[in-house]
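re: the backbone from monday

yeah here it is again, tokenized this time
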């Protein structure tokens, strides 16, 4: 992996392929490797940029609070470093929140937007409370409690479960806590999405128990031009459970 100093951290990333620039943004609490199979299917169509978001994988983080918008700024600085003026962004789950924040802040730099198992609404008060409680639990008990709780919710596929659990337990307390608090405080971007002019593709499994497919359908309602790829039987990890179908959906961003 390569690294670049941005905003007080070291951001790690992989770059591969050729074509339209496409940033693949991983979800919580994972890293860029969740995109490996999809990246192999897309590298002949796109100039792929796969970052580890701050604190995750091989990227460093800060101990002070930060926001989803700050994470979007990290990606803007990465694109500056790579001399990429405009790119499509596809984000999985939390990565979708970062992609949305980037699209709001830097619309002139976005050629297309992909939301994979993600949503545009903010947390409910109850959801926000749960994130802060999980953060407090991580302080006391460590990251393993997140791995144990999340792994069965991410997928029912045993091989995917083994992969994600191994990735989650390698993350640091500070990365998990920082991301939880950033997600808890994110803004509702549904109304902003309704006005975008670039292509949008929504990829979602109908068996997702973490973010129900209704969230994607709500976006489709306010943005009828969005392409909705509904994957029958997919959970929260379609890029691993249905890699080929996910890759085909993302090719819409290169058209």
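seq for it, each position gets an aa:
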């Amino acid at each position: 992996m390569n690294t670049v100093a941005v905003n007080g951290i070291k951001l790690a990333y992989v770059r591969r392929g050729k074509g339209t620039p496409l940033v693949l943004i991983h979800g919580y609490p994972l890293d860029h490797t969740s995109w490996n199979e999809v990246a192999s299917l897309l590298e002949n169509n796109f100039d792929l940029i796969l970052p580890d978001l701050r604190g995750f994988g091989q990227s460093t983080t800060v101990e002070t609070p930060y926001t989803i918008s700050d994470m979007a700024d990290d990606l803007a600085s990465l694109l500056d470093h790579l001399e990429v003026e405009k790119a499509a962004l596809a984000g999985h789950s939390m990565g979708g929140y970062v992609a949305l924040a980037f699209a709001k802040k830097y619309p002139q730099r976005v050629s297309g937007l992909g939301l994979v198992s993600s949503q545009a609404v903010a947390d409910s008060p109850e959801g926000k409370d749960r994130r802060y409680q999980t953060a407090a639990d991580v302080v006391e008990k460590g990251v393993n409690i997140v791995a144990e709780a999340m792994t069965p919710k991410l997928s029912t596929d045993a091989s995917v479960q083994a992969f994600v659990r191994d990735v989650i337990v390698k993350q640091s307390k500070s990365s998990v806590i920082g991301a939880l608090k950033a997600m808890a405080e994110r803004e509702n971007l549904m109304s902003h999405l309704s006005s975008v002019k670039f292509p949008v593709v929504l990829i979602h499994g109908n068996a997702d128990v973490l973010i129900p497919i209704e969230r994607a359908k709500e976006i489709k309602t306010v943005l009828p031009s969005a392409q909705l790829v509904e994957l029958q039987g997919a959970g929260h990890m379609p890029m691993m459970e249905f890699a080929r179908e996910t890759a085909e959906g993302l090719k819409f961003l290169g058209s």
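The chain has one domain: 2-122+186-254. The radius of gyration is 16 Å.
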